[in-house]
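Following up on my earlier thread - several people asked me to post the actual chain instead of describing it. Fair enough. Here it is, all 264 residues.
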Amino acid sequence: MRANKLREIWKRGEAVVNGWLSIPSAFSAEVMSHQGFDSLTIDMQHGVVDYQVAVTMLQAISTTGVVPLARVPWNDPARIMKILDAGAYGIICPMINTRKEAQALVAAARYYPAGYRSWGPVRASIYAGTDYSPAKANDEIVVMPMIETAEAVKNIDDILSVPGIDAVYVGPADLSITLGCTPKLDQTEQPVVEAQQVIAAACKRHNVAAGIHCGVSSYALKMIAGGYQFVTLASESRMMAARAADEVAAVRKSGVSAGKLPAY
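Reply from S.P.:
Thanks for posting it. Predicted structure:
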């Protein structure tokens, strides 16, 4: 079965550079997969991607060695199992606030005896190899709950102690809202900065990789220096908008550095 390169990177003590896909297009996914990312995440929560298009995006990513991940809309076993069967090699799941919710996530993503994922890796067995098996899938698939509320930060040690949690993913915007701050990427407001530090320290204690969504490379590097081992750089839609606006501004000599950017 195909090895999950994210596990290899983490084992070396290095950080994964992740890309974010919110445009429902196999072509844009293919383009992004050739830009040097370690992994690409298909956003099925806040992006405009449905399941059928997500499958074509997974196919496009698999033309390269980039690891395909998916952020599911919710902690829903049916959606988790279906996108894993389609060939996603990891799940990012929003709004995991308690140990019980973390246990439910792991159970849906793992085969017996670690969970209750139903057997049917229709495309996954093509992508990962014909020796795709329950035991090997349990070893390779990455499970990442999102830590994005004050409640989750309070319960971080309980969440991280759940067997089968490989990494966590900080959602800065929602975390900011629950801490009474402005929802945005690349936070500098002290309550959010402190919460992000608490999460990184807890992950180190539990030998779990800490991940976070960043807006720009400089902030991603800062997070890596602070102990994060999985950093996302904006999204393909945000990068496209920012670059297009810069080029238009240069021609018009308007001095405008960016137009309207997507939230992610």
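The chain has a mean pLDDT of 96. That should answer part of your original question.
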